[in-house]
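Internal QA ticket QA-208
Title: Verify multi-chain structure generation after dependency bump
Assignee: T.L.

Test input:
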Amino acid sequence: MSEQTQTRQRPRQTERYEPRAIEHKWQTRWEADALYRTPDDDPRPKWYALTMLPYTSGDLHIGHWWAMVPSDTQARFKRMSGYNVLFPMGFDAFGLPAENAAIKNQTHPSEWTFRNVDHMRTQLKSMGAMFDWQREVITASPDYYRWTQWWFLQLLKHDLAYRKSASVWWCPKDQTVLANEQVVDGRCERCDTIVSKRDLEQWFFRITNYADELLDFSRLQWPEQIQLMQRNWIGRSEGADLRFGLDIPGVAEQEIRVFTTRPDTVYGVTFFVLAPEHPLLDQITSPEQRDAVRSYVEAARKESEIDRLSTDREKTGVFTGAYVTNLFNGERVPVWTADYVLATYGTGAVMGVPGHDQRDFDFARKYGLKIVPVFHHPDWDGGELTAALGHGGTMINSGPFDGTADADAVRTVTAYAEANGLGRRAVTYRLRDWLISRQRMWGAPIPIVYCDDHGAVPVPERDLPVLLPDDAEFRPTGESPLTYHQGFLHTTCPTCGKPARRETDTMDTFMCSSWYQMRYIDPHNEERPFSRELARKWLPVDQYTGGAEHAVMHLLYTRFFTKAARDMGVLEHDEPMVRLFNQGQILGPDGQRMSKSRGNVVAPDDQVERWGADTFRGYLMFLGPWDQGGPYDPSGINGVYRWLNRVWNVVLGETAAAPLPAAPATRELRRWTHRTVRKVTDDLGAFRFNTMIAAMMEYTNYLTRLRESAAPVDAAAWDEARTSLALLLAPAVPHIAEELWQRLGKPYSVHTQPWPSYEAALTVEDEVEVAVQVNGRLRGRLTLPTDAPEATARDRALADAAVRPHIEGKEIVRIIYVPNRLLNIVVRG
RNA sequence: GCCGAAGUGGCGGAAUGGCAGACGCGACGGUCUCAAAAACCGUUGGGCCGCAAGGCUCAUGUGGGUUCGACUCCCACCUUCGGCACCA
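Actual output:
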């Protein structure tokens, strides 16, 4: 009985795929073996792959996996392709949320931050990524921010840092500075008080010195749209600075300068506008207009820049009572102030030319100001204007310049201005110098001491870091505790030793993330931010990946840092990251940004627990194109899990194998193998992870069908197939690949194996299906030998039973043949 | 508002000038099971014709255009997403 039962048993079942067991096993083994330690002295060519470091927000988010898994996959692919790959990880750990948590929990922000780091590191490890944790960097730890402070001192030394007054949001009730985020509809998010701008002395970096160089992308392989966004952000404008005469009793200044891209319209100036923040505004305002101007300025200080720059909005402004003289024609024009003029752009003043600028036109219409066209535009009938005129035509109403053609106008007028001292050629940028001061505690302290005798004195490098106090008291107002921490505040002047006061502002966290890629190459160096030799070896980053939300600010700041470092003799290259890829944003299942308040958060830990890291990794990459993002809908993940089970069964299952090298089925099997190797290789290089997974699924389905057909297959070709599949899987799903590799009896580790290559000759089909169209409509299909000549295809198509009814009795005008794809017969009648 | 991007079956998507819907989810039908789940197999854009094999036709946000041929290129519009300088 028992014997009979045994003989009736099916052939031995392979062990089931148990992701949790094998993932834990291999992660432990990899760590014990230091498989992902990146040596500095490896002779292979280096490849520095970097993904943007996470902020220490508390919990790892689906978005972190979404960002890091494909990066890890590509870094692993590069490693197998023969590179010594550096793929580090760290934490962006300073910033506002830590302070909010500190106020809420009455703790020190460092407590919250470092607890989050520990938790997130554990979560990150469950990803099975090839991060080299020996190189971890935490921007809020003193051995890191010491060097952030060092960078500040270098920039200061090289005149790339300076102090000037700039405005911040201020809540009059809480007596505190607010971030933009904390201002909701013009009110303080905490107490609902209407907020206003307030001026403070703050530190800036001269990023505008590099504006022109930052416009040069010739050495970068960055996406076109990112280059475009950066170009638009920098916003280079050529034009002229023109002088306008000022003659007001009691005002020292004799002129106001204005930047314009249209100096050729200067004879059309009928008014003049100063930004509400313009330094001369108060002085030139007449006593009768003072109250009106003051209340207008005050109102403008409550508005955001986005609102002020909206072209949608009705223009507002107030007459100052003053006049300036147009030095070209001696005319006096009224000076207004209006909030659509920003103090931070150009000279903070605009010459109003309503005939040729739409904003000025709208403004003039509203306030009944004169409109004088100075070009006879071809579309203009000479009547009253209904909108500003664009470029084109010849100059009129412009004294000596009348008759000058549009194409020559700017040059001619600018030359005249320069020759007569009325102005000069000028270039202006939309880009502003980088304001790095933050009136907050949880950031790297700006290493400056204020002395009554010596002013702002830099802290000597040997005294770095300027440590944050660890006993700071957080008050519910959100005011920086550094401002009332006596131990921090009081110090001595480095120059004279007299009592002095520390700078209590800290640095913008974008500073920390502007140079972190440099620290990873030498993270434990106590003498310098990094060694020169290691910089020469590892930098620049070969492939950077991260969210498109950083397209402009972070990516411009780090480019600036690199260029400044080059000019300061710290680095020898020009650009921080040679290649860039921006992934899209992953959203909650409801298509909204994931957030606890919306209740649409899908926790990655739960997904890993339920399906295993490999399935989750594979699913994230399979979801769709990486650069697009979109909602994370967990309902399809079982498809990837099923696939990995099929992989498991087909690679480890038994087949009837025999030496059949010449069989047609062998040729087909090898064609599948080599085509899949080619497809996966190409997709990995091009960030097409979704189609890479799909190609491996198709291959697995083919192998499964082949195995289940029970027909004998060539032993060598079958071994090539399952070996190749295990290797192709290794970057995307590293744990199952390692397990399969071991069970196939191959030497540890699959991740140190060379990437499989393909033979192009083996990928070619013998026959292809060619579509036959008549007038662009599909009418039939032909099976033809690959690369069949046109004559063959044409003859077969014209004789085809499905095609003939559509061409009979008609004149064939033309035949278009695309080999191996399509033949289109164009008929008439 | 300004700058950048994206709109394709019930859903995620594939195809970047050449057979629209690869791959997967879901759904439906089946196998197994007392049953359910899981697993596996089959079908699956809409409409029309046909017993069937199959055929015709409509369809890639909307409206135009270029082309033998357009999801793909051009123009206009609509919607959604990212950024707008102190969220990171």
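Spot checks passed. Residues 1-13 of chain A have pLDDT under 50 and may be disordered.
Status: verified.
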